[in-house]
Amino acid sequence: MLYGELSTGALIAVSVPGAALVAMGLARRAGQALPTVGPRGLPWLAWLTAAGTWELLMLSDENLPTLSDLLDPVLALPGVRAAAAVGWLLLGAWLITRPGPREDPP
């Protein structure tokens, strides 16, 4: 939100659904009943660490493009942008509908 060039309307359109999904996921404690990931989660952890490191390095130097800058030409097409937004919201909905905490029988 601090680095973008979003208009006020676009910022609200992105922030409100995102905040709602985060709040719903936290309230439902989404995914808590799932078994622990264990070693099979290490590739995901490595990928997320690499992506986060990439973004931090790119934001520290204004001459290097961030992932957002690289995707801008693709997302400039309205159909692709709409599909990406719907996909992002569907991913959030899937995450918050995962099983909640297990109820132990009395």
UniProtKB/TrEMBL annotation:
Where exactly are the transmembrane stretches of this chain? 6-27, 39-59, 79-97
UniProt keywords, alphabetically: Membrane, Transmembrane, Transmembrane helix
Q: Which domain of life is it from?
A: Bacteria
Name of the featured protein: Uncharacterized protein
Tell me what organism the protein belongs to. Blastococcus colisei
